Amino acid sequence: MSSAREQAGTAGGPAGDGEARAKVIPIGTGRGSRAGRDGRGARGGRAAQRRTEELADPTVLAGAEPGTESGLESGPEPVPAPGTEPAGAGTGPEPVSEPAGAPPERAPGRGVADSVADAVGHALAGPLGGLAGRLLGRGWEERAAGGLGFLRRRLTGEYEVDEFGFDPELTEKVLLSAVRPLAEKYFRLEVRGAENLPEKGGALVVANHSGVLPLDALMTQVAIHDHTPTHRHLRMLAADLVFVLPGVNELARKAGHTLACNEDAQRLLELGEIVGVWPEGFKGIGKPFADRYKLQRFGRGGFVSSALRAGVPIVPCSIVGAEEIYPMIGNARTLARLLGLPYVPITPTFPWLGPLGAVPLPTKWTIQFGEPIPTDSYPPEAADDPMLLFNLTDEVRETVQHTLYKLLVQRRSVFF
What is the pTM of this model? Predict the structure, then answer.
């Protein structure tokens, strides 16, 4: 084996030792010089020049162990021929490995969630913590931790919805929390007969409808959730209009609403859900103030058919207080047809007061759930018997109507 100096002399030729040393690739660097990685040859690096001088020194070569060069285990790397580039030149930069112990790269969503949670946590741990304790009262730390956990799950997508798009966590943490002050403080909702609602299993709640806007449905949803031991969610059957309005469609799905059809109603009942239906529809919610608390036609009994097929009880529900929140004294039918709406209400405050006219009057509300009407004793073919459907529908309607009359007699005032 020839020495590195002999190889350098062969490669350099008469040009001299300086030229030969410039062509030698340093040994033992593992990656070669920076100039070699950039494809510009082996010249230019101070470490490379110093290492080349050591290889050219015979005293250094003489002290090397037999079979090695400069005391290194590996043999000498080949010296390129004149006019050629060193090995590794022009091959591009080698990948740089991450240092040991470096934290793993986090997903973008989780990184944002952690950053937000950390920022809020640091803010509450400082002077804001004492202020929050005085303003929010005891237990604010647990509430804040729950809110941050909810925010983290929203940002990272760690939540679930069912086959209808119902998001129970969003409904309970956000939607019901937003509606609850309206029910408890503004309408001062009183709930009666909540023990008639089953703690588990399917049930069909049938209620009267009124009030121009369907606030009575939202109040019923809050009442069932807050007054059942297992905090059950009411799955409401909504009209087609709800699912064609931009923004309202997505919000209704998240809140557990679904299309008012027998197939969806029966599917939810078979899954053991509490389903709410308002058979009067737009005729009930948009009736004149002079016809308040007079039930309209209950349809053809489709809700009874769904209850019979699923074998679940029917719970009559009577709501007092919703008729007076928007006293409807007129209907702009021409404008309603142009807008594709069932009605455009005219009240003592709307449209005369503009946006202020949309504020409901603070009436006193009462929701009473009657005794359930069982359906599990009927055979499966009973759902196709029109006479039975008519009789059960009429029974439910009469129960709701008579309960409304009793509540109106007991009521001391519309507002108190």
Answer: 0.68
